[in-house]
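Tutorial sheet, problem 5. The four components below are modelled jointly, 452 residues in total.
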Amino acid sequence: MEKMFDLLVDCPLFRGISSTEIEQLLKNNVYQLKHYRKGDLVAVHDDEITALQIVLMGSVKGEMPDLSGRVIKIEDIEAPRPLAVAFLFGQQNRFPVDLVANDEVKILRIAKPDVLLLFQQNKRFLTNYLNAISNRTQFLTRKLFFLSFRTIREKIAFYLAEQMKLQNSSVIILSQPQREMAELFGVARPSLARGFAELEDEGFIEVDRREIKILNKEGLISIAGR
Amino acid sequence: MEKMFDLLVDCPLFRGISSTEIEQLLKNNVYQLKHYRKGDLVAVHDDEITALQIVLMGSVKGEMPDLSGRVIKIEDIEAPRPLAVAFLFGQQNRFPVDLVANDEVKILRIAKPDVLLLFQQNKRFLTNYLNAISNRTQFLTRKLFFLSFRTIREKIAFYLAEQMKLQNSSVIILSQPQREMAELFGVARPSLARGFAELEDEGFIEVDRREIKILNKEGLISIAGR
DNA sequence: TCGTGTTTGTAACATTTGATACAAATTAAG
DNA sequence: CTTAATTTGTATCAAATGTTACAAACACGA
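Model answer (structure tokens):
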């Protein structure tokens, strides 16, 4: 049981709060523990969300159900992270996806009214929660923005211009594999590789796997358009 | 000045809080008022966000700057609504867009530390704020979900399935012209028309301008996939 | 060192979409 | 009723992307 509080120290919602403080906050038994085995349904699409849920052990995958039986995997949530923080509040308190246990899973549940009490008792927990939702929104905003570009070339050009600023260099090291970047852009992985290859052929950049050298910054920016 | 508190009663962040309570909460002078004229820049892309800002009068538009001088309008925020609630917390405390006054605009500013104090002083304000961010996230999740469909057929099919529920009928009246719907979907107008025509050829629907009759609901849903 | 799994770079081909153009149907305004 | 503007339905063609497949480079652990 002690282990649980140690696990929570690494959870974004409890960042900056010591294990003993966490123990004190939760000591009034305001929580439940749930166990799931591999393949178990942790929650079903449209289930009502009445409690904050934190994955303590194992990982859970979000899936969209398909009428023909197939499923589309949306994302993985690994311990020690919370589930659906942005759906505990707001108008639609229902799971947007199915949640399935990837392996043996332990989940901590704290009912919504108790979460509000925790907010009052610990300011850090509150700001952590606000940060968690906000980060989610920021991630989605960014993703939507990327999808708003018409062509893959534009997405790449914009991404590189952005990274040039961030890394403050004309040689950029990509932090993600192409597969993940393609996912962020909402395009197929080989299409992304082709995009890079085309920009290289046209003399805008020089590509060596994860290392991108910007040869024509102005040209690149004019491709991105914005 | 009294008018301000009355205006705030209609702001989602102060919902359920009376004008006099709002006055009490804000009486310690923890706020600033800013005036802008039509066309004034309220905030610039990448400006740091250190305060909660609420539009009290007029409206503000979010725009993405273009290097060639053009701008792309993202959205309008009208009084009495807050600006960028999801960017006051989280990792990226910077405006994602330029904000330009549409007309004469009054904006209320409350510094971030004071916002946190308000959270402690008034539980309703806190839950309102949580709801505001959460609703934003939910909206974006939905929009992203919509854009995540690969083909136009899938978008149309999903849209129609949704409208069937909303209008509770197997005959759907489209409320927008194709041009606007195409914009929402992020596709070209003739491509959208072609999408409808194809679904008609295949016997899923019957199209008569704005009136769509669903002939094969199950088939349509299986096209949408999810 | 070797094998195994992952990542990257390409290629060929089919599919989807965008761009453009135009006619017919509809609506709005006079 | 007439005319003009808007909306819809189509067609054609080019461009962009997805799909599938495979080989080479790389990373990592046994």
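Marking note: Helices of chain B lie at 2-9, 19-26, 112-121, 123-147, 152-167, 178-185, 189-201, 217-224. Full credit if you identified this.
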